[in-house]
Sequence to fold (142 residues):
Amino acid sequence: MNGDSKPSVSRIIEQCLNLTITLAPSVIKFPTTVQGFNTVKQSFYNSARFPNVFGVVDGSQIPIKAPRENEPIFVCRKQFHSINVQLICGPDYKFFDIESKWPGSIYDSFIYKHCAARRRINSSEFGEGWFIGKQRQELVYL
Fold:
């Protein structure tokens, strides 16, 4: 890290995360109206010719130190300790939703099946549409 000490890097990361947590409610959010979702769907269509898309979803394993409690459930399939994080983004690369409460052993499909964003979309609260995600190197509609 260009000669930066570990404590300095750790403090910088902590400050960035604290700022992200503070700003999250005003920055990370879904549109709240049918018109807002229609704008999102139109943007996806204009940029990539994907019709009726509300967002793009993907997951990632974020490495962590081994926790003292329930340690085995935080070991992911790649054999390191992690938190499994799901992100949903809009057509302009802004975050719509972040799920970051699941241990590394939990599969992406489980997180998606239990996320609030999926329930809202499946209830047709904002009209007809879907998320696009990648499973095993294939593009799928969720």
Observations:
- The first helix runs from residue 6 to 27.
- Residues 63 and 82 are 4 Å apart (CA to CA).
- The beta strands are 53-63, 82-89, 95-103, 130-135, 138-141.
- The radius of gyration is 17 Å.
